């Protein structure tokens, strides 16, 4: 039987494994909103089970994070991680003072919110970063994502919103936001075979939770996210890329690794829904934020490779440095999983 390259076609779309199922779910929800209730059972669960699937996703992703890392990887990854999160906190503080928790409800910027911006800033597309560093960097630069992958999940977004002076989250919710990732990290580091077993499941779950997220969206509002989504993606590249460039140079790099980290991970689109489930005050903002962050995923996936290639030509390739044997082991496993 002749094969149809569905997977390959989806992967040609930037962030395709996240974006395509999300849009498919949104189309069904817009044109046939009664579908989940009509079919019920397992079919209905596919439309409504995003948070459950995400909980399993974060356990499996945590298992792929290796505690073992060389000093260079800790320094490089830790610096890029701190700068990326720091820019999210700065954006949260500034916008929190101006907007509070609610989105802008009218005009050119209708739908933009502190939640959307912080979620887009806080999480790096790991698959994209590692692919770019494989081309323009060294294995030790690729391994830096071992530390940066701690950005995954809603925990740091919750912390950022609290630091920004917006509605805080009870400690149980904060712990619950990071617990699946931590449990996965412990399991994966106690048993390498278990790490390999769980890590393989991460890319498989991405389209399923993306579809369920999309099933909660109304496409009649997507047009508002058009230019705003593009603007948010450009803002992520510019406003995080410049500080990351200089931070990378301060840690002995050329700046290329910093620019390669100036993106938004596909799974960041899931964060607004999780935040709203944890604190209903963000419910209205989350409706728009999911689409905006998904748009930022696509925009940054297109822009970051172009800007990284341009930066590499401008500043040159990283100097040839001897690699340490532990570095290859320290790299987080599934590249597709990290970028979603």
UniProtKB/TrEMBL annotation:
Location relative to the cell: Cell membrane
Organism domain of life: Bacteria
Principal location listed in the UniProt entry: membrane
Pfam families according to UniProt: KdgT (PF03812)
Membrane topology: Multi-pass membrane protein
TM region(s), chain numbering: 12-32, 38-60, 81-100, 106-122, 142-163, 169-190, 197-217, 223-247, 254-277, 289-312
A GO molecular-function annotation: 2-keto-3-deoxygluconate:proton symporter activity
One Gene Ontology CC term in the entry: plasma membrane
Transport listed as a keyword: yes
Catalytic activity: 2-dehydro-3-deoxy-D-gluconate(in) + H(+)(in) = 2-dehydro-3-deoxy-D-gluconate(out) + H(+)(out)
Keywords: Cell membrane, Membrane, Sugar transport, Symport, Transmembrane, Transmembrane helix, Transport
Keyword Transport found: yes
Family: Belongs to the KdgT transporter family.
Protein role: Catalyzes the proton-dependent uptake of 2-keto-3-deoxygluconate (KDG) into the cell.
HAMAP family: KdgT
Protein name in the entry: 2-keto-3-deoxygluconate permease
């Amino acid at each position: 039987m002749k094969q149809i390259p569905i997977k390959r076609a989806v992967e040609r779309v930037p962030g395709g494994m996240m974006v395509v199922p999300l849009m498919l779910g949104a189309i069904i929800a817009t044109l046939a909103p009664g579908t989940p209730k009509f079919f019920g059972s397992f079919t209905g669960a596919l439309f409504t089970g995003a948070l459950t699937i995400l909980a399993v996703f974060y356990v499996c992703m945590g298992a792929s994070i290796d505690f073992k890392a060389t000093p260079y990887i800790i320094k490089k990854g830790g610096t890029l991680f701190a700068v990326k999160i720091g820019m999210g906190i700065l954006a949260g503080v500034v916008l929190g003072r101006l907007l509070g928790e609610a989105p802008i409800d009218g005009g050119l910027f209708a739908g933009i919110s502190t939640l959307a911006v912080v979620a887009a800033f806080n999480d790096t597309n790991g698959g994209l970063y590692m692919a770019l560093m494989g081309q323009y960097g060294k294995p030790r630069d690729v391994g830096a994502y071992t530390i940066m992958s701690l950005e995954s999940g809603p925990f740091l977004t919750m912390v950022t919103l609290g630091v920004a002076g917006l509605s805080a989250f009870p400690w149980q919710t904060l712990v619950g936001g990071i617990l699946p990732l931590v449990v996965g990290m412990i399991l994966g580091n106690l048993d390498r075979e278990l790490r390999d077993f769980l890590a393989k499941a991460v890319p498989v779950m991405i389209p399923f939770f993306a579809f369920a997220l999309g099933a909660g969206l109304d496409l009649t509002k997507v047009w508002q996210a058009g230019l705003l989504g593009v603007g948010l993606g450009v803002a992520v590249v510019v406003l995080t890329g410049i500080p990351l460039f200089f931070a990378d140079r301060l840690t002995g790099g050329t700046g290329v690794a910093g620019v390669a980290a100036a993106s938004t991970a596909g799974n960041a689109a899931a964060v607004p829904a999780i935040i709203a489930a944890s604190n209903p005050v963000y419910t209205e903002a989350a409706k728009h934020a999911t689409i905006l962050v998904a748009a930022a995923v696509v925009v940054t996936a297109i822009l970051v490779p172009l800007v990284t290639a341009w930066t590499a030509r401008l500043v040159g390739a990283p100097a040839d440095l001897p690699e340490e044997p532990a570095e290859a082991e320290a790299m987080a496993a599934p590249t597709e999983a990290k970028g979603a």
